[in-house]
Design a protein that fits this description.
This protein has 160 residues and is mostly helical. It has helices spanning 2-15, 17-20, 51-56, 65-78, 80-83, 107-110, 114-123, 130-134, 137-149.
């Protein structure tokens, strides 16, 4: 019995405060190694337009009632919960965010070109990297067309 108590006491003392004060390596504490020069990844994220390309990009999808209708459906899939039914940033999930999601009907948003809307939809504040990996490429431009219907202002013309 005495031997068992001594063994338990030794084990407790040896693992005591020293375990709490030891050096540990946490995930992602170390930087990733640099890629060798000339290496280009061939797998991974969906290919999306870079911000510079998309800001000058003209919407390649013709605006039709069917495209706008599909854009409304896609808005329900991806945007409604944060931006709200009216696009004013008062969605059920968005109300918990600080800052509040962007009002998609505001003059600051309606002034953007289609390419800028596309870019900010994928890479804007609060979206990285989720939206660029979540919104299917064939849903993106119809979404832009639908966003244009949320306000009564015409779309600005992109520079070519």
């Amino acid at each position: 019995m005495l031997l068992a108590l001594c063994l338990v006491a030794c084990l407790c003392c040896s693992c005591g405060p020293r375990m709490m004060n030891q050096v540990s390596v946490k995930p992602y504490d170390r930087p990733m190694p640099d890629m060798p020069a000339g290496v280009v990844p061939t797998t991974g994220r969906l290919a999306t337009l870079t911000q510079r390309e998309s800001q000058a990009k003209v919407n390649p999808v013709q605006r039709t009632p069917a495209v706008v209708s599909n854009g409304k459906i896609f808005y329900g899939y991806y945007c409604l919960m944060c931006h709200g039914e009216n696009g004013d940033g008062n969605g059920p999930v968005g109300e918990a965010y600080v800052p509040k999601p962007t009002d998609l009907t505001s003059p600051a948003v309606t002034r953007l070109t289609d390419g800028q809307l596309y870019s900010r939809m994928l890479h804007g504040t609060g979206h990285d990297p989720v939206m660029s990996q979540t919104v299917l490429p064939e849903h993106r431009w119809p979404l832009v067309h639908y966003l244009r219907t949320m306000s009564l202002l015409p779309a600005p013309v992109a520079e070519k």
